[in-house]
Amino acid sequence: MSLVRPLAAHDLDQVATLFNRLLRHERKAPSNALRAYFREFYLDGPYREPDIPSLVHVTSDGRITGFIGVHTVPYVIDGRRVRAAFCGALMTEEKDRDPLAGARLLKAFLAGPQDVSMSETASPVSQAMWQKVRGDNLPDFSLDWFRVLRPSGFLLTAASRWLPPLRLFGGLARGVDALFSRRTFGESLLGFRPEPAPAAISTQTCSRTEFGDAVRAFSERQAARPDWSHGYLDHVLETAMEKPAFGDPALALVRQKSGAILGGFLYHSKPGGIARVLQLLSEPEHYGLVLDQLFAHAFARGASAVRGRSSSGILKAATRRPMIFTSVSASVIHARDTELVKRFSEGDCFINGLAGESWNRFFGGDLD
After folding, report:
1. pLDDT at 183 over 60
2. Is the separation of the CB atoms in 221 and 313 below 8 Å?
3. Which of these, 219, 228, 224, 218, lies nearest to 342 by C-alpha position?
4. Do 136 and 155 belong together in one domain?
5. What digits encode the pLDDT tens for the residues 329-354?
6. CATH of the domain at 103
7. Do 132 and 245 lie in a common domain?
8. Which residues are within 8 A (CB) of 230 and not within 5 positions of it... i.e. 6 or more apart?
9. Are residues 102 and 189 in the same domain?
10. Are 110 and 159 within one domain?
């Protein structure tokens, strides 16, 4: 008979092999770096709580055929300190022989002592399982968006994921986009030409410390937000800066002449590639302005497009901007005390990015 139990150190090789095969679609053996990061993040992490472990699904003959990765985030909801647990990788194999393995892993996770359970990477199959146990989807926070800056470069970058030799045509794509950029497209999906920033506004590169201070200040305005004290935000930001698969990090704050901060952003990019936004900050009324400054900043760094995760503010600003939205994974939430879910459903929350899962090295880190 199969069982679900906490992850142990001797499971790491099998779990890393599953991760490579099922989520990275690679047949090669897991690297030492990947094994080491599974241990670092899921077993030895500085903010890991032993009574809320990651879980494995084990067959009667001792084989691991499923895994759910769990990490905890200290949260404050309406002034009340709670324990939130995020489930990242949920993977199972042998679905024909044991189709309920994933459901058993999720059910065991939700039965843990945490006050709130969340995920920002729920697949359509996972979403269905969450709904069966009365979990809630958070639609405003569940879409990925794209803003095309250089159309030829964007198409080439997207296609070369499946046909790597297409990268040889990068020079041709840059030439085509240079021709496009000579025209003013305005609000068009066909290209981008940055407009001068308003005279009273400036976008300035900032330090990690300055950005961390802005994260604290902006998240304080949300009824549901992480408790960034005790070094938690410093730990998250330090890890989040290194994503070589996505490119070099960029940190910037959008300010008025008076020095007041209207917003900011953290993203990673490579010349000609798709910039990946990890965190966008904004006053409610300034999302459009901050997005425009983000697009211009990424364009100046040579990005072909910008990609990020939706929020209530971004969705409102997008109604006047040519952005593409798609469903890649969903943000979901579950709590026995339904009052804890209310603020997230209303959108009065700081979630995803630095407050979720995508800051860790499984997203864009060097694990090969």
Report:
1. no
2. no
3. 224
4. no
5. 999 999 999 999 999 999 999 999 99
6. 3.40.630.30
7. no
8. 74
9. no
10. no
Q: What's phi and psi for 311, nearest 5 deg? A: -150, 170
Give me the residues paired with residue 136 across strands: 333
Q: Same domain for 202 and 227? A: yes
What's the token pair of residue 300? 């100046």
Q: In whole angstroms, what is the distance from residue 292 CA to residue 194 CA? A: 8
Q: What is the mean pLDDT of residues 238-253?
A: 97
The structure tokens listed for 95 are: 């679905």
Q: Structural domain of residue 76, as residue ranges?
A: 3-141
Q: How many residues does the chain have?
A: 368
pLDDT tens for each residue of 221-243:
999 999 998 899 999 999 999 99
Task: State whether 271 and 153 are in the same domain.
Answer: yes
Tokens of 160: 């070369």
Dihedrals phi, psi of 268, to nearest 5 degrees: -125, 140
Q: Tell which residue, 287, 360, 314, has the closest CA to residue 87.
A: 360
Residue 286 lies in a domain: yes
Structural domain includes residue 345: no
Termini Cα distance of the chain:
35
* Other Cβ atoms closer than 10 A to 220: 11
Per-residue pLDDT at 173 exceeds 70: no
pLDDT bucket at 169, cuts 50 / 70 / 90: very low
Residue 133 has pLDDT above 70, yes or no: yes
Average of per-residue pLDDT across 57-76: 93
311 plus 170 within the same structural domain = yes
Residue where a domain terminates, one of 115, 141, 167: 141
Q: How many domains does the chain have?
A: 2
d(CA 69, CA 19): 11
**Do residue 225 and residue 114 come from a single domain?**
no
Q: How far is CA 341 from each of CA 81, 116, 134, 344, rounded to the nearest angstrom?
A: 14, 8, 11, 6
**Closest to 188 (Cα-Cα) out of 19, 321, 350:** 321
> HSE-up of 126 (CA within 13 Å, CB side)?
25
Structure tokens at 137: 């989807």
Per-residue pLDDT reduced to its tens digit, 154-166:
666 665 565 555 4
Q: Are strands 201-205 and 224-226 parallel, antiparallel or unpaired?
A: unpaired
Phi, psi for 176 (deg, rounded to 5): -65, -45
φ/ψ of 319, rounded to 5, equals: -65, -15
User: What is the residue whose two structure tokens read 């809320």?
Assistant: 52
